[in-house]
Amino acid sequence: MKKTLSITILLIFAVVVLNMTFQVNAQTPVASPSAKIIYMSGDVEYLKSGSTKWQKANEDIMLETGDKIKTGEDSSAAIFLWDRSTLKMGEKSQIVLTNLSQKDGGTITKVKLELGKLWTNVDKFLDSSSSFEVDAPYTLAAVHGTAFDMDTDGQATKLDVWDGKVECGDASGRKWNMEKSWGVKCGQNGMVSSPRQFKPDESDKWQQWNLTMDKRIRQARQKLPRFVNLRSKTDTRLKNISNELKKLPPPKKFNVEEFKQKQKQRKERNQQKKEETKQKREQKKEQTPQKKEEVRQKQEQKKEQTRQKREEMQKKREEIKSKVKERIEQKKAQEQQKREQKKKEVREKQGQKQDQIKQRKEHKKEEIKGNIRQKKEERKNKGGAVPQRKIHAHPGKSR
Question: Which entry of 58, 165, 191, 229 is 20 to 30 Å from 17 by CA?
């Protein structure tokens, strides 16, 4: 009976756990081929596939196959793909996400650059079935874990490789491999110029910003899974990448009109200052003799005041000196009195000591004389005459 009850309880618990698992899986969206705007500045718009109306974009807009994105003047945008790759668009640029799909466990990504600048940073693929292509006018770039930028005006496309390798092709069908620090420009009739090697120091502000941001993005995206669920609202790791972009916004375009306007304002301010100084000089020249006399009187008054102040200061100094002298003399007199007093005290002590010594000597003499008298009296009392001193002969000598 007990065994049957325990088995029943275990079965109920297993059913509850399975039910909860199915509910969680049903509520949690699965990663799917998509893209997301994680940063934008200025005027950015997007066009959904099948629609004809451009809409204003904002961060966290989801993008799928067939969607278009464009940026206005002095604007930029950053797009994060579900395979951890990033696309950064410069100003006056337009791209199309022609294919975001999955095949045989790998990812297939195709982007078309119609106009402007596009910086691409592709994560390294873990399988051979994945591919990433960027199609631009008269140029096709296929990559496998690299960073490169493309710039096109519709007539020709310039491609520069900043990391890894890029398989590049032109309109004539030729293909070649481009390595790091190599670039090429292609037009309608093929290559406009042969592949050239460049130095990273030759990069402009836009390219320097992208190189800096790529380092930060690489560190942040290592914490993300291989395929990112961009629709998740609880995952804050993607938000960290967006915050990194906000910390260091892309460089703005040099505005010629704004510069001219500031230069004009600066000239107007300088002209105004010149006029003010000119007016002041004229006013000084037009001063009447009366004003000059007033100025002279004021100067004399100031001189008199300064003279009086000097005299007062001199008197104060003399008073201070006399007081100091008096104090010094008083101190000297006090010190002299103290020295005399000390000498007197010393002399008195020495006299007292000498008197005491004399008294002791006289007292001793009196004691000795008294002892002698006493002995003489005792002898007189005992024998009468005082015994004479006996003289003994020295041995060995005759008298």
Answer: 229
Q: Is residue 320 part of a domain?
A: no
284 CB-contact burial (10 Å; exposed 0-12 / middle 13-18 / buried 19+): exposed
Q: State the Cα–Cα distance between residues 78 and 100, nearest whole angstrom.
A: 17
What number of other Cβ atoms are within 10 A of residue 66's Cβ? 15
> What residues make up the domain containing 157?
28-247
pLDDT tens column, 207-219 = 888 888 888 888 7
Least-confidence region, from 58-62, 127-131, 212-216, 272-276: 127-131
What average pLDDT does the segment 139-144 reach? 82
| Mean confidence (pLDDT) of the chain | 81
Q: How many domains does the structure of the chain reveal?
A: 1
Interval 24-66: pLDDT, tens: 333 334 467 889 998 888 899 999 988 889 999 988 788 999 9
Angle between helices 205-221 and 237-247 (to 10 degrees): 160
Domain assignment present for residue 3? The answer is no
Residue 351: inside a domain, yes or no?
no
Q: Which residues contact 68 (CB under 8 A, 6 or more apart)?
A: 46, 47, 94, 95, 96, 97
Which whole-number Å values give the CA distances from 306 to 45, 239, 297, 314, in the listed order? 77, 73, 14, 12
Residue 90: CB partners within 8 Å, gap ≥ 6? 71, 76, 116, 117, 118, 119, 151, 206, 250
Residues facing residue 248 across a β-bridge: none
What are the CA-CA distances from residue 349 to residues 281, 345, 346, 357, 360 (Å)?
A: 91, 6, 5, 12, 17
Report the distance separating Cα 262 and Cα 136, nearest Å.
Answer: 39
Backbone torsions φ then ψ of 336, nearest 5 degrees: -65, -45
Looking at the whole model, is its pTM more than 0.90?
Answer: no
| Closest to 96 measured CA to CA, from 127, 125, 119, 63 | 63
Is 273 inside a domain boundary? no
Residues paired with 39 in a beta bridge: 78
pLDDT tens digits, one per residue of 278-332: 888 887 777 677 777 888 889 999 999 999 999 999 999 999 999 999 999 999 9
Structure tokens at 314: 């001199």
Please give the torsion angle defined by the CA atoms of residues 293, 299, 304 and 309, in that order, rounded to the nearest 10 degrees.
160
CB atoms within 10 A of CB 179: 13
Distance CA 203, CA 209 (A): 10
Residue 153 sits in a domain whose CATH number is: 2.60.120.1440
